Each structure stands twice: as C-alpha cells, then as structure tokens.
Automatic annotation (TrEMBL):
<keyword id="KW-0227">DNA damage</keyword>
<dbReference type="Pfam" id="PF09302">
    <property type="entry name" value="XLF"/>
</dbReference>
<feature type="domain" description="XLF-like N-terminal">
    <location>
        <begin position="18"/>
        <end position="128"/>
    </location>
</feature>
<comment type="similarity">
    <text>Belongs to the XRCC4-XLF family. XLF subfamily.</text>
</comment>
<protein>
    <recommendedName>
        <fullName>Non-homologous end-joining factor 1</fullName>
    </recommendedName>
</protein>
<keyword id="KW-0539">Nucleus</keyword>
<feature type="domain" description="XLF-like coiled-coil region">
    <location>
        <begin position="131"/>
        <end position="175"/>
    </location>
</feature>
<dbReference type="GO" id="GO:0006303">
    <property type="term" value="P:double-strand break repair via nonhomologous end joining"/>
</dbReference>
<dbReference type="InterPro" id="IPR053829">
    <property type="entry name" value="XLF-like_CC"/>
</dbReference>
<dbReference type="InterPro" id="IPR015381">
    <property type="entry name" value="XLF-like_N"/>
</dbReference>
<dbReference type="InterPro" id="IPR038051">
    <property type="entry name" value="XRCC4-like_N_sf"/>
</dbReference>
<dbReference type="GO" id="GO:0045027">
    <property type="term" value="F:DNA end binding"/>
</dbReference>
<dbReference type="Pfam" id="PF21928">
    <property type="entry name" value="XLF_CC"/>
</dbReference>
<keyword id="KW-0238">DNA-binding</keyword>
<dbReference type="GO" id="GO:0032807">
    <property type="term" value="C:DNA ligase IV complex"/>
</dbReference>
<dbReference type="InterPro" id="IPR052287">
    <property type="entry name" value="NHEJ_factor"/>
</dbReference>
<keyword id="KW-0234">DNA repair</keyword>
Length: 204
C-alpha cells in the first residue's frame, strides 16, 4: 500500500510540471518534463519521443551511484552534486546540447556543462519505455483540459469586450471623446476575430 501511495505522489508531482520542447544536437525534436527534489536526492524525467513516452526515476543511493559513474572526480556534498545536475540540465535543454540515442527499449539523453573553474559535469538520463496509457495521462488529457479552459476564458473575454464597447458607446452618446485620435478603437467583432484566428491556425 505504501509503495502505491508513493508512486501516486510521484506522478502527481511530475504531472503538474510543464512539457518543454527541445531540439537536440543532431536535430531530433522531443518533449521533456522533469521533477527534481533536492531534499530526497530524487528526480523523475519523462520524454515524448518517436510516439512513445520514456521515463527514468532516480532516488537517493541510485543518484549517488550514477554520480560515481559519470563524475567520479567531483568530490562534494550530495546536495551540491544534485544542484549541479539540475542547473546543468536547465542550461542545456534550451541550447541544443542534448544528445539522444535509442536502442530497443532504452532511450539515453546525455548532456554536459562546465562548473566553476571549468570542471566538466556529465549526465545521462537512462530512460525506459513507459506504458501506453501514459500518453493519455501525461499528454492527451492535459492538452484537452487546457484547450477547454482556453475556450472558456476566450468566451469570458469576448463578453467583457462587448460590455466595454457598450460602455464606450454610452460615453460617446453623452458627448465624451478620446483625447488622442490614435487611442480610439473599433467595436469588437467576434465573428471577424474568430475567422481571422481560424485562418491563422489553418496556415500552420
């Protein structure tokens, strides 16, 4: 039971993290999301690549073992080693410095950076293929919920603009005018706005 609760908390934590679009050194494109927890020296990383979600979870001693493999010459506290990892990943994910390699049911994402005094820091996420339902749980369902929420907010904003137009029209009927001509706006036309937006989307 405790293991089930622990796994649920893990996926609750990773689920609220945003997906990050990354271009790799050799041109591959992928989506990444990570959850780093310094207090337990643990992280969970997910990657959407080649229509599959890949995942690695590392906790405590496993993290220290990987440190000895990839960075045997760096001697410092475990907390600092973990800070180096998070900082290095964040600096590499947007700079085309990630390298990806897939072999059967294993995906490796490698990166390196330089610490103070030019000391190199290396790391590789060694990720296994996740279950197919993760695509629904981590990608499709959140995306549909986001689209639904954006649609709701757009409807509220449209109604607000219409009320503002009525308010401005009332001011004008009472003789009010804008102090500068370039500040004057035309009434909001929801149909024209939606048509223009649809055309923009169809061109993507």
């Amino acid at each position: 039971m405790s293991e089930k609760i622990q796994n649920t908390k893990k996926y609750d934590s990773i689920s609220v993290q945003p997906w990050v679009y990354a271009n790799c050194h050799s041109g591959e494109q992928l989506l990444l999301k990570t959850c780093f927890k310094k207090e337990t020296l643990s992280y969970c990383v997910m990657c959407y690549f080649n229509s599959v979600i890949w995942e690695e979870e590392i906790i405590g001693n496993d993290f220290l073992k990987k440190c000895k493999i990839f960075n045997p010459n760096i001697e410092t506290s475990p907390a600092k080693l973990f800070t180096y990892l998070e900082s290095c990943y964040n600096s590499c994910v947007f700079s085309l410095e990630l390298k990806v390699s897939q072999q059967n049911d294993m995906l490796e994402i490698s990166f390196k950076c330089k610490l103070q005094a030019g000391i190199p820091y290396y790391w590789t996420f060694m990720m296994e293929r996740s279950s197919p339902e993760k695509i629904s749980n981590q990608l499709v369902t959140p995306l549909l919920l986001m689209v639904s929420e954006l649609s709701r907010k757009q409807g509220e904003l449209s109604e607000l603009l219409k009320r503002k137009d009525k308010e401005i029209q009332d001011y004008k009927l009472q003789g009010s005018q804008v102090s500068k001509q370039h500040l004057e706006t035309t009434p909001f036309d929801e149909a024209s706005f939606n048509n223009a937006w649809s055309c923009d989307v169809s061109c993507i």
